[in-house]
Amino acid sequence: MRKLTDRERKAYAEDGVVHLREAFDASWVEALREHAEDALNAPGRLGRNLSADDDPGRFFSETFLWHRHAGFKDFVHSSPAAELVADLWGAAGINIIFDQLLIKEPGTREPTVWHHDLTYWPVRGEQVATLWLALDEVTAETGAMEFVCGSHRWGQRYHPIAFAGHSTYDTDEPEVPDIDALRDELDFVQYDYAPGDCTIHHGMLVHYAGGNQSASQRRRAYVTRWAGDGVVYDPRPNIQRMLFEPDLEPAAPLTSRLWPQVWPRS
Asked: How far apart are CA 189 and CA 42, in angstroms?
């Protein structure tokens, strides 16, 4: 596994995001590209096209792939991902929340709206993060994420916004402010990715991604969502539905059939 530096841990703590170059070798990237094609060609019941009907491209999303596909399951349990997150936090144990493909084909206009992740999910705690692994070259043109540095420390939970179609989320949190109107007041960071690079960002960090403006370059990302020490089950109505309901009481630790602990490895 690629070891993290103190500078990288400091970037995550202060900015809420860290960019890790060459975090995953070519064998993982090639395997995930093959598995992504499997999912595109035969989506599961949670596969969605998030683009509008008149969008010339395609914004494909599918969650909980590792529960149905052996290749993604192998990544979750055997890749360096969970250990990287544990190293970042100094955590004693790491649970997988879910995995996701986010693929923007060339010419996709659909953006990913400004949001943060944690309020979509029925979990609560400080050690919740997303690992966003690039399977292609990714730039601002093709839809690299842009992050509001330090927004994970604002102490504000925001209403989850549906990425496409009519929002079914009905929560009491205020909406994300107009981030673009605050560009002179906030600090932003955006990275270029080579295949195998990743970012790890805090579950409360506000971020966005544009469409894929390239006429030829795909933007394939395999995304894993992780929980560490002290994270508990927080069921709430009208948020993102999980693959199935875990057999847990509210405020219980996450370890379950839905959210197994995958690090340390048994």
From this structure: 35
